[in-house]
């Protein structure tokens, strides 16, 4: 686990050695301090999940996919990237689609965490709840929206959402008991085909570099 802290150094010549690069400038040896870029996050694992293809529904408010960090979890999740693929196999309706934050999820089809890709095979299994095909969710704020395809054999893809600022300030952070879901805002169409890929990190520590 990482946390902001400090150390107090004893007087010169008797304490810890500082790493430097020695250079001769103007005939005088000078030392440049070496700085190592770090992160306030202690990474537990980095993951990606590519969903199954879910067929469309005519039900308004239908949820195609969800990813939820359980309330029993002890860390944080940073969503780094979302790819959405939304296709039509025949002429369909044009409606608003949206990604929401959610605060609960139930029902639908639960997917095993063994379906999640570990970006390093030595990472532990993720602590994540993955569902699709009509889970029931409690909506929070809307994160992103787009218009579904309507013409036959049309598609909206790849919709690529990225949160990749080095300081972490742009990341979509999920705390225990929070998640995201992809939902249609009006009556949809059975000719939709919808799938997504989500990349995320699980970590402890503070979310951003301050």
Overall description:
This protein has 210 residues and is an all-beta fold. It has one domain. The protein is built from no helices and 15 strands. It has strands spanning 20-25, 28-33, 41-50, 54-55, 63-69, 76-88, 96-106, 109-111, 117-118, 129-132, 136-147, 155-162, 172-174, 178-184, 192-205. The strands form 3 sheets. Strands 3, 4, 6, 9, 12, 13 and 15 form a 7-stranded antiparallel sheet that branches. A 6-stranded antiparallel sheet has the order 8-10-5-14-7-11, with no helix packed on it. The two termini are 17 Å apart.
Short summary:
The protein is mainly beta and 210 residues long. It has one domain (42-205).
